[in-house]
User: Fold this.
Amino acid sequence: MKRLFLFAIISILMLMPVMAGGASEEESDVTTVTWFASRPLGGEIDTTMREIAERYSQEHGGKWVLEIETTADRPSYLQRLRTLIAGNNMPDIIDIDADPYCQSLVDAGLLVDVKQFLIDEGRYDDYQETALRYQEFTDGSMYTLPLEYHIEMIWYRKDIFAQYGLDVPQTMEEWLDVCKTLSENGITPIAVDGVDRWPVLRYMAMIPFRYSGNDYIIALRDGKASMGDPLGRQAIEFVQEIGQYFNEGFAATDYATAQSMFLNGQAAMYYIGDWEQNAMLEAYEAGLVDYFLLPTAPDGTTGANEYCANSGIGMAFNAETFDEKTKDFILYVIENYGEIYASKMQMSPLKVDLPEDVEFTDLYYRIAEDMDNFGPAFMKPWDTYLDSATNTIMQDNILLLASGDMSAEDFISLIDSSIAANANK
Amino acid sequence: MKGIIKNKVAYLVFLLPALLFYLFAVFYPIIDSIRLSFVSWGGIGPQKYVGFDNYIRLFSDSVMWESFFNNLVYVVIVVSMQLLIGLLFAVLLTYMQKNVTIVKTLYYIPCIITTVAVGQMFRSMYATQPMGLFNIVLSALGLGDLVRSWLADVDTVLVAVSLPEGWRFTGMYMVIYYAALISIDTEVSEAAIIDGASKWKTLWKIKLPMIKPVILLTLTMCITGALRGFDIPYLLTNGGPGNASELMSTYMYKQAFSSLQFGYGSAIAVFIIVESIIAVIILRLVGRRGEK
Assistant:
């Protein structure tokens, strides 16, 4: 009997931590809002948001706290986010792209209508139009708030171009010709980060964007167009052709290696956005590198001032926990974010007068000017359109397509069958 | 002491924590995977029961079969490296008189390096940009034609992602075999030598048969481990380029967490479990037949 009693006690002791885990947290008057974030820790967005949250918290006597849980690595972030949501534990604020997965969250009523919120609060016009439009779904609704704003460009080595008497290409054809000349002279034309896959996927989007804006990819996503349509085939041919000019072994080249190849002069060109302007600055000021924007197609429908722009992964709010307090904080962010963020030499998604006490570089002004001249259409990355399954297949196989290890027909059949099986699911 | 060992309640008290943990952390996920493998679910909303659809798809999915055969190649490379090289080193160690501990420690070090570091190290060694160790050695040996980006080439990538895993645990199996070899009663091999057996014959006919139970155990560990191989291939290539280095578990992970098809991912997980169980059964049958 005594032993049975002992057994019971030990069993209860063992179960206690399990039960304690399920109990509710201690009641307190401090409001804690959790932001499950995917921004580089210590990066400009991260530090700006922490600064604002800290200031807001102080203004509210410490009764309000923003808890930031960051996973910078995007694939692991998404996996954790999806697992949390699948387990019904969605945090108050999350980072998410306006992709089909996000759409399914919207359909399940989990996210706040950010567009309506901005309009209701009279804040919609505080933002750069393109920055907001990037966050929109195809139907024009918007559930994510941008914290950054970027344009993407092709950086090139002026020294190498000069050596071979090359001019900045104006058309896609000329671009391929430049690559060809460089390649024939034993120069690696383009450094590409294949490990992350998205940089290669950008090349797939270029030709369709030049001839149809984002119409082709939207039709492809909806199952109304085939990868084997003339435009799809043109896109594939372009990837196959330009793929020959990527650095050897690009499939196993990571972001940092590709960038340093370019900066060390081992490759003549490198496609990346303005978020790397600080890395380019020294070489830019030394007159070694410069950039050009996506070349045009002579009979295309989009112009030279229309190319890939993005406002990054957006911030979305849990519809269940979005109360007055959170609203007030978000308005505070909108009020203060632009100036603090711009003072860190970043391109702000909010319209802002540049702070006078900060000395901006010539490169910054030049990029800002290109942003101001931006046309109405912009190339939206394909990964934000495609469903998760097709995205995985496209990203896996585009490396083979670009390296010449897969035929166009195989690629077409893979993509078409995946879209048929997964679109509108 | 005797009282406690005889007491069944005490047994239970001591076994219960581990048993509960096992049920919760291993058994429950397996059962839930089996349940999930019969549904179609994207992570949000209701789960839809689809019967055997996921399994039907599994057997007609060409990428799945590519992963399966890749996995077999992976198992062969990993198992032969870990066990054969491990055994060879262990045998050589038994002939060493001095510094055995230092050598053992040195060979064991790869096991304690974190996977991410191993991945990063091999990624650099396989690269051409900047030139990695493998390619430098090949060039120095006058085999410049073989220089390539080993992880980007569809013909070499599978072998390239298998080698680090094999390399990593060779030392561990060496230590296990060494312990087994030195525990053999020396009288047996001495008797064999007196009877005129050569060292080679002593090893082949006496020592190795005597550690056969250990060999079978390590073979089981190694094969089931390799069938579930995931981390290094995933870190190095994410299964790519294309699906050239896709293994069953990386494919399962991608289906469940990248493509958000938890049902289909679970069906692959169940397939991996069944495959591992079959492997263990075959090994046991082989072991038993040997005993007869």
